[in-house]
Amino acid sequence: MISTEYLYLILGCFIVTWIPRILPFAFAKKMNFPAKFRLFLDYLPLCILTALLVQNLLSVSTGRPPVLDIPETLACIPALIVGIYTKDLMKIVVTGIIAIALIRLFI
């Protein structure tokens, strides 16, 4: 059985994670932002996802320039095509997972 200390630890981790991630959304829904700031906020998810994507497509070694990972880049192409046509995140993710699985299976 789990001791009460572990339960307190899990509860504390939940609260510490919840406050900075969820609470701002609750406050932001009730606030009216200027149009320019809303436009800025609209681009944030795209910028964050692009940064994560580029980080995963490149391998960086100390003292060497970044190198493009070919399998991940090839898997990105069908996911990008599906994203352009469907704009459905679930289809994009499933396409990327299937593409990288097939590439790793055959290459």
Structure description:
Pfam families: AzlD (PF05437). Keywords: Membrane, Transmembrane, Transmembrane helix. This protein has 107 residues and is mainly alpha-helical. It has two domains: 1-31; 34-106, no CATH class. It has four helices and two strands. A two-stranded antiparallel ribbon has the order 1-2. The radius of gyration is 20 Å and the shape is extended. The N and C termini lie far apart (46 Å). The model has no long low-confidence stretch (mean pLDDT 89).
Per-chain topology:
Elements: H1 4-29, H2 35-57, E1 58-59, E2 67-68, H3 70-86, H4 89-106
Antiparallel strand pairs: 1-2
Helix pairs in contact: 3-4
Transmembrane segments: 6-27, 39-58, 89-106
InterPro entries: Brnchd-chn_aa_trnsp_AzlD
Organism: Tetragenococcus muriaticus 3MR10-3
| Element order: H for helix, E for strand | HHEEHH
Low-confidence stretches: none
Percent helix, as a range, is over 70%
Q: What proportion strand?
A: under 5%
Shape: extended
Average pLDDT figure: 89
Ends distance: 46 Å
In order across it, which strands form the biggest sheet?
Answer: 1-2
Number of strands: 2
Compute the number of structural domains.
Answer: 2
Protein name: Branched-chain amino acid transport protein
InterPro entries: Brnchd-chn_aa_trnsp_AzlD
Keywords: Membrane, Transmembrane, Transmembrane helix
Transmembrane segments: 6-27, 39-58, 89-106
Using brief descriptors, characterize the structure shown.
4 helices, extended, transmembrane, transmembrane helix, Brnchd-chn_aa_trnsp_AzlD, two-stranded antiparallel ribbon, Branched-chain amino acid transport protein, mainly alpha, about 110 residues, 2 strands
